[in-house]
User: What shape does this take?
Amino acid sequence: MSAIEIDIEIFCARCGAGICNNATASRTKGRGQPCFEIEPCETCLEKAKDEGYQEGKAEAEKGQ
Assistant: This one.
């Protein structure tokens, strides 16, 4: 079987950040097909964390 090389660039769908370093090539567990596993974008994770913090802070201030 011949090997095929493909250059792939991966970008976050939300913020557009390049996340090639967050991706690894592997194989599916069931059929052993090639696939990519991609970790979430750090920028969007931090944004979501901050939004959750701000919402919790607002809720706490309402309760006082």
User: Anything to note?
Assistant: The radius of gyration is 19 Å. The helical segments are 42-63. The chain has one domain: 1-64. The mean pLDDT is 88.
